[in-house]
User: Which sequence fits this backbone?
């Protein structure tokens, strides 16, 4: 009977996960075009072609994604810490304020940065009018803008797990560290930080995986030489209508992420993440 | 939908209609723009009679004759178009042209603004059409380009019963009759045409712009906008090389790609833009950019009156957004009735006075001038191009196979997808 209860979940997974996955994998091994149709020909060469043609964008995606995730952590940890330890009875409202901008569509928020960062916009325009920057300086269309956009868009996804992990920490443990003559700094490094590790790990996974596959930030804030693998997949799917290449690149991205997560879990352990989930 | 309250010069708005298409803003400033001749073109209007059409309706294939013979008139029509692409009352949001049509013919029109990108729209409808099902639209509007060619190759379109389109053959501009992408207008008639040229801000460039060479000027490094659309991008480079895109060869494409690569490597290109190029021009991110004429009207209406549009001396690209009937349409006869109805000076004029792209009905010029009393639109060489302008207008290369299109994409995509 208990097995029967899980049937809806299995059906759901089969229809919305297994079927599309199989479709994607088989398309990546197919040859043909939209006019004549496709046939699975076990065309593994496509994978070599994809890596050969787009290795730079693949590497770049992991680089941007990893760097942006790290920066997000550095940026959000103090915020989450402050809310959890010093937010008092306003914790809820402060968290709500942080999440508030994220009620606006992701694309709109990214477009808003286009205005803020534009050459004559609020930030650069002001600096230029003060003579602090030369007229032709720009920030949009650069990798800085793309990584900045990634960081900005993942703030909420990192604050929440960090906050939950920090909030769960037993304050008596921190006080005990003080009683045992730990300075506030060493109490943080040796007690609080290790205890918040599950939040760090969970947030990292969440943010890193979305960042690597992102294409909106590169499309809206990037320029020549900032394309990420998501942009390449989108191009191959819609514009070039090269469905096998798009599927191959998606598969490669998935495999690489699985490998990365595997090693990540091996190094940091899965218990802490499960612990967090529980 | 779009409100008119955002006319500030700052341009701090997120619902930028230039992301979409067409015009909704205050008419006054737009007219001022047309009048000022700020386009770098004198108003050299020729009398409409200079464009006498001379085509005849063609006979249908027997298969399609049988199809049309079976059809019965209906009282409905579903018309899928791009946003901001038909006359719209600023206050009520109503479309006078459509209401007039319903009054005259008794056919109710369901007008949908669902097409925002040719490739994405094609990706949406192709699987349905491939399965032999109806997409629920009787008329769709697609730009001449690979997706249109593909719709024809895939046999997704209904052949037009040209005998039912006498107005088209009587009134259409020669520029839309028997086009290279649809010989004999078997499947399509044009809704609007437009030009791809260069837009720039003279305050930033410090000089007038006349040529594609200016897009390669290192003086503007980091502030030149190019289009991410590979057809537009490649065509601009071909024109710069003095090659007519429509007659180009894969060798020419390689040469064009080489100069584009060079332009990018020298740091001249700021970005390869989609419709967002207009915002980059408005914000001052780009000083000079590949551009569509209609968007510059819109920018002026919003207060960015510095921007200018030119047809470069090497020529400009002329594109056409075309009406067609997808297979499985429920009301094909109503669709033909609308197409025929559109190709009158009155109807095309009414819509053109709002759209301000290029009108496919030259005699609408007189109607706009005398009946609608709008000389600025009527005399604009961008809405009713002169012979000289048409002489500078170039057609896109017409792909004859998937592999050929792929060859073009593979040639130019390494530039934008870097």
Assistant:
């Amino acid at each position: 009977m208990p097995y029967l209860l899980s049937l809806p979940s299995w059906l759901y997974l089969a229809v919305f996960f297994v079927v599309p996955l199989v479709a994607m994998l088989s398309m990546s091994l197919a040859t043909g075009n939209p006019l004549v149709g496709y046939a699975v020909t076990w065309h593994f060469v496509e994978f070599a072609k994809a890596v050969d043609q787009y290795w730079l964008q693949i590497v770049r995606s992991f680089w941007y994604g990893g760097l942006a995730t790290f920066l997000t952590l550095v940026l959000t940890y103090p915020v989450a810490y402050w809310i959890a330890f010093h937010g008092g009875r306003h914790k809820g409202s402060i968290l709500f304020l942080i999440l508030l901008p994220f009620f606006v569509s992701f694309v709109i928020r990214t477009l808003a940065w286009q205005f803020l960062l534009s050459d004559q916009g609020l930030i650069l325009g002001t600096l230029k009018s003060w003579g602090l920057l030369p007229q032709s300086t720009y920030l949009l269309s650069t990798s800085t803008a793309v990584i900045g956009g990634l960081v900005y868009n993942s703030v909420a996804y990192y604050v929440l797990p960090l906050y939950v992990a920090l909030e769960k920490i037993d304050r008596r443990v921190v006080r005990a560290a003080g009683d045992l003559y730990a300075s506030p700094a060493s109490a943080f490094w040796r007690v609080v930080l290790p205890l918040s590790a599950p939040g760090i790990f969970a947030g990292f996974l969440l943010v890193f995986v979305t960042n690597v596959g992102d294409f909106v930030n590169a499309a809206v804030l990037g320029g020549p030489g900032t394309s990420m693998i998501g942009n390449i997949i989108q191009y191959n799917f819609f514009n070039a209508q090269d469905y096998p290449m798009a599927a191959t690149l998606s598969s490669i991205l998935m495999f690489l992420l699985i490998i990365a997560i595997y090693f990540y879990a091996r190094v940091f352990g899965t218990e802490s993440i499960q612990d967090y989930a529980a | 939908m779009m409100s008119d309250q955002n006319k500030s010069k700052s341009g701090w708005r997120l619902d930028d209609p230039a992301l979409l298409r067409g015009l909704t803003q205050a008419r006054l400033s737009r007219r001022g723009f047309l009048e000022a001749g700020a386009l770098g073109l004198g108003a050299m209007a020729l009398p409409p009679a200079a464009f006498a059409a001379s085509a005849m309706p063609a006979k249908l294939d027997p298969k399609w004759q049988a199809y049309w013979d079976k059809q019965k008139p209906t009282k409905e029509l579903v018309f899928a178009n791009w946003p901001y692409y038909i006359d719209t009352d600023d206050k009520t949001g109503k479309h006078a042209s459509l209401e007039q049509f319903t009054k005259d013919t008794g056919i109710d029109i369901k007008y949908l603004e669902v097409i925002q990108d040719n490739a994405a729209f094609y990706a949406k409808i192709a699987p349905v059409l491939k399965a032999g099902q109806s997409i629920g639209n009787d008329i769709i509007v697609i730009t001449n380009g690979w997706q249109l060619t593909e719709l024809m190759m895939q046999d997704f379109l209904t052949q037009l019963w040209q005998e039912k389109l006498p107005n088209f053959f009587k009134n259409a501009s020669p520029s839309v009759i028997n086009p290279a992408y649809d010989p004999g207008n078997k499947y399509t008639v044009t809704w609007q045409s437009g030009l791809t040229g260069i837009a720039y801000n003279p305050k930033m460039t410090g000089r007038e712009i006349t040529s594609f060479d200016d897009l390669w000027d290192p003086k503007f490094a980091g502030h030149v906008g190019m289009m991410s659309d590979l057809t537009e991008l490649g065509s601009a480079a071909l024109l710069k090389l003095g090659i007519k895109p429509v007659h180009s060869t894969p060798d020419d494409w390689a040469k064009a790609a080489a100069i584009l690569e060079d332009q990018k490597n020298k740091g001249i290109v700021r970005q390869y833009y989609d419709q967002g190029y207009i915002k980059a021009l408005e914000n001052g991110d780009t000083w000079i950019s590949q551009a569509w004429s209609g968007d510059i009207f819109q920018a002026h209406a919003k207060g960015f009156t510095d921007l200018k549009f030119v047809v470069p001396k090497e020529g400009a690209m002329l594109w056409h957004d075309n009406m067609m009937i997808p297979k499985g349409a429920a009301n094909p006869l109503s669709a033909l009735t609308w197409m025929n109805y559109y190709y009158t000076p009155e109807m095309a004029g009414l819509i053109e006075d709002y759209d301000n792209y290029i009108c496919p009905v030259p005699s609408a010029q007189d109607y706009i001038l005398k009946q609608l009393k709008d000389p600025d639109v009527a005399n604009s060489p961008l809405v009713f191009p002169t012979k000289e302008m048409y002489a500078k207008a170039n057609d896109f290369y017409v792909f004859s196979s998937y592999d050929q299109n792929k060859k073009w994409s593979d040639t130019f995509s390494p530039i934008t997808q870097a």
Summary: The two ends of chain A are 25 Å apart (CA to CA). Chain A has a mean pLDDT of 91. DSSP finds 14 helices and two strands in chain A.
